[in-house]
Amino acid sequence: MGHALTRGRSVELAEGRVTLRPIRARDAAAWQEVHTRNREWLRRWEATVPPGSAAGRRPTFRQMVRFLRAEAGAGRMLPFVVLYDGQLVGQVTVAGITWGSMCSAHVGYWVDERVAGLGVMPTAVALVADHCFFRLGVHRLEVCIRPENRASRRVVDKLGFREEGLRPRYLHIDGDWRDHLAYALNAEEVPEGLLMRWRAYRENRGFTW
């Protein structure tokens, strides 16, 4: 599986006006502009470093990219930036990739408030899910979301992820340990592909780009 994942590190995925490509150091200016402008929008949902943690301070962008690319090289992660009409508007990361008898991973994401509600993130998640399920051989994908994060929960609801229950004090966010709802999807639940499911959802509701 390592060989397949290595091929996936440099992949570019696209659907309509949405494109995903691996994050890189030269994304710094665009990434920081979007992230800084959306600080209040994202603050309640982004992971924080617990006081006294051995991890120390939050990493710089360059340190983050170095870590993400090292993890990708080790076969444990696929970090993408999300482009909408060619402009960086967010990030989606497949992390915790585990092979062997489990073949699973979890997905995290954030998006610019300016394009929230336009179908950008459901498209991005569908693209990475199909890539993981049908090109890399991942069997299960999981997304964990704070119950209060209605916008993020709508993403997985639209795509048909199963809600599997509450994980109390699961992740340190915005200064404290926060409960999360776990959502999951197995490859055999979407034999037609998650992107096809998302296209059908949009067509049934008359949505276009």
UniProtKB/TrEMBL annotation:
Keywords: Acyltransferase, Transferase. The keyword Nucleotidyltransferase does not apply. It comes from the Bacteria. Residues 18-188 form the N-acetyltransferase domain. One of its GO terms (cellular component) is cytoplasm. GO terms for molecular function: protein-N-terminal-alanine acetyltransferase activity. Pfam families: Acetyltransf_3. InterPro entries: Acyl_CoA_acyltransferase, GNAT_dom, N-acetyltransferase. Belongs to the acetyltransferase family. RimJ subfamily. This is GNAT family N-acetyltransferase. The lineage of its organism: Bacteria, Bacillati, Actinomycetota, Actinomycetes, Kitasatosporales.
